[in-house]
Specification:
The complex is a heterodimer of chains A (about 325) and B (about 325). With about 325 residues, chain A is α/β, with parallel strands linked by helices. Chain A has ten helices and 14 strands. The two termini of chain B are about 15 Å apart. Classes of the chains: A alpha/beta (about 325), B mainly alpha (about 325).
């Protein structure tokens, strides 16, 4: 009596599984062709930053006529990146391009891929040097430092006081940027003066408090430069609340999406980062060139489709100068 | 006199066989399907990958089985794995203990964590769900506090990494350990009085007490065992990834519980099997690996595992009802 019911449900269970699977067959037939297959891994899949990298990569894949596999962790388990890469190794992809969340952990899997003659490239954040062939470097400290200082000088007419808000006084990358900011200032803009350098612990609230204090302590302040991403909207909020919009300029290193409001209100003048779409595009071109052998370790330049020539320093392919997001262009970017 | 008794137990057996048979059939269908869409899915390399990637969760699922059999649950095993991995790294790197001794000590640490769960549950008679929800937070918090969330342990010696990454006669090096634990737990559950008493406790704790079973001790034992094996899983995990970080094993407790329940163990205790759990682990592992070979986004895996679990549970409940009715039927027959 209930026996057939049980059986029916069993069938249903199998049916559910098959339904899920058979639905998927439509799209999966392209796999077996002779096209190069390049796998691209973001740090996390839902991140808007990487979604825009993917858009660039898709464009490149279309131009080059290759298969792009885009996959990455959706949960915070660090073992996932490794598992996906190991799956790709058995899948037999031609090249893997990865943005590494766990430098050491993922290097284990990438070395394994290289041992199986799969070309490995990293982008956005590097793995151990021996675990990849090239790193697509989105911005050198020098490029970041120079762009920030040039932009500050442009907005202030190359003279007057400015202050920097950083994440912490010990963060290695920020100290590196700051070194180049200072070098640029002393060589090109001697009439500008840095009056304060304040840490914000990578917190927006603290950045806002620091900026407020800076504004009252330095009446002649012309510009605040925020070099960690939470500090840019933090400083902008402080300037806005102090009623000094336009009088004290705000620039910084951050995501367009976090700053769109302030840029449109005229509080923040420029947000500096790189074009993530170009990063994805260049990464895919480089991975393809590596896989077909046209990009070699000794190369000094690399040509990536419509974007043209890129410089190679050692095993770093440089994306080049950072990009400046401002009132005119910020609406075109959604990360 | 004897005949109805054997046919009764025969009916029981055939029903519980049914759940596992259904699962086995699903597993084979999964395998056949993925083998037909993914040219390399059926390769030995990939089978090794599947096995390698499911060892840690598999171990946790194995020790979760006795716990659920007694009607308990352990939400802390994933966090325990994380804490064990960190302390293992600390012992090796900071206390300069050799990796193997550190590994053994890690089993002890796991056992201690398990003993904490066990004593809270059996001495204070707190519900396992609440106790392990607390220790879930506690263990993960301790792991994060010890490392301040940033310290990562890497650079383990190659002979240790071989445990997680190399191959022994064509099989992943960690496979023998997994098989040994699986056989051990299977014997414990299906061939000893411990196993019988766990079932009895899960079925009716008070009844078990009146039958002279030392319920507290037997229940406590399952949690200590889970701790020890979580320690082992932590060591294998670290060897596989080459890094120990505070986020190791995030979310593993839910995968383990899913595998156990999918394998036919009743969440209310009393009924279930270790081979069912193994099938559950395999069904999940094959599904998430196969989707990569079918070039499907892995998010689909979560959806399908959910559907699979719900379907399996429905079948299980109906089978129980069927069993109950046929029992009544039997009783009617014999009168």
């Amino acid at each position: 009596m209930t026996m057939p019911k049980t059986f029916a449900l069993t069938l249903l269970a199998v049916g559910v599984l098959l339904a899920g699977c058979s639905k998927s067959t439509d799209t999966s037939n392209t796999a077996s062709g002779k096209k190069l297959a390049i796998a691209l891994m973001p740090k996390s899949k839902g991140n808007a930053y990487f979604i825009s990298c993917k858009a660039g990569a898709e464009k490149a894949a279309k131009e080059l006529g290759l298969e792009l596999i885009f996959d990455g962790p959706t949960d915070p388990d660090p073992a996932k990146q490794n598992e996906i890469i190991e799956n790709w190794i058995t899948l037999g992809v031609d090249a893997i391009a990865a943005a590494c969340e766990n430098r050491e952990g993922i290097s284990t899997a990438l070395r394994k891929a290289r041992a199986k003659e799969i070309k490995v490239i990293t982008f956005d954040s590097d793995a151990s040097q021996d675990a990849r062939d090239f790193f697509v470097n989105q911005a050198t400290p020098e490029g970041i430092g120079n762009t920030l200082m040039d932009e500050a000088a442009r907005l202030t007419g190359s003279e007057g006081e400015f202050a920097i808000i950083t994440a912490s006084l010990t963060a290695a990358n920020m100290n590196e940027w700051q070194k180049y900011i200072e070098a640029r200032r002393s060589s090109k803009y001697p009439n500008m003066k840095m009056v304060a350098l304040r840490p914000c612990d990578d917190l927006k609230d603290k950045a806002q408090a620091e900026a407020t204090a800076l504004l009252s302590a330095n009446p002649n302040l012309k510009l605040i430069m925020a070099i960690c991403s939470p500090a840019v909207p933090g400083a902008a909020e402080a300037v806005k609340q102090a009623g000094k919009t336009g009088q004290v300029k705000v620039i910084g290193l951050g995501l367009p999406s976090e700053n769109r409001r302030y840029v449109k209100e005229g509080v923040t003048d420029s947000v500096i980062l790189w074009k993530t779409e170009d990063l994805g595009y260049l990464t895919l071109y480089a991975a393809q060139a590596l896989a077909n052998g046209s990009l070699k370790p000794s190369d000094k330049t690399f040509k990536a489709g419509q974007l043209g020539e890129f410089e190679i320093q050692g095993d770093n392919i440089l994306l080049g100068k950072p990009f400046i997001f401002n009132k005119e262009n910020i609406d075109q970017f959604n990360f | 006199m004897n005949a109805p008794k054997t046919s009764k137990s025969g009916a029981w057996k055939s029903i519980w066989l049914r759940h596992e048979t259904v699962l086995f059939a699903i597993l084979i269908l999964e395998w056949l399907y993925f083998n037909s869409v993914g040219p390399r899915f059926g390769s030995l390399d990939n089978s090794c990958d599947i096995l390698r990637h499911s060892v840690e969760i598999g171990l946790l699922a194995l020790v979760m089985t006795p716990i659920i059999l007694t009607g308990g649950i352990d939400l802390s095993v994933g966090a325990m794995l994380g804490l064990c991995a960190i302390l293992f790294g600390k012992l090796w790197r900071d206390a300069h203990v050799s990796v193997w001794i550190a590994g053994l000590a890690t089993l002890g640490i796991g056992g201690f964590c398990g003993a904490l769960n066990a004593s809270l549950i059996t001495l204070l008679r707190l519900p396992p769900l609440i106790v392990t929800l607390g220790t879930f937070s506690l263990f993960r918090g301790l792991a994060e506090a010890t490392t301040q969330g940033v310290d990562t342990f890497t650079g383990f010696p190659n002979f240790f990494l071989a445990l997680g990454q190399s191959e022994l006669v064509g099989l992943p090096a960690q496979a023998p350990l997994f098989v040994a634990v699986a056989v051990g737990i299977w014997l414990l559950v299906h061939r000893t009085t411990f196993g019988r008493s766990w079932r009895a406790i899960g079925f009716a704790p008070e009844g078990a007490r009146y039958a002279g079973i030392s319920v507290e001790r037997r229940v406590g034992m399952t949690y200590v065992l889970a701790g020890i094996i979580a320690g082992l899983a932590a060591v294998i995990y670290t060897a596989r990834l080459g890094q120990a970080k505070a986020d190791a094993g995030t979310g593993y407790e839910l995968f383990a519980i899913t595998a156990v329940v999918l394998g036919g163990t009743s969440i209310f205790g009393g009924v279930g099997s270790v081979h069912g759990t193994l099938l559950g682990v395999a069904a999940i592992a094959v599904l998430s690996n196969g989707l990569v070979h079918a070039r499907q986004p892995r998010e689909v895996a979560g959806m399908l595992i959910g559907a699979l679990l719900l379907a399996a549970l429905t079948v299980s409940v109906l089978a129980k009802q069927f069993a109950a009715r046929s029992k009544i039927g039997h009783a009617r027959h014999s009168t």
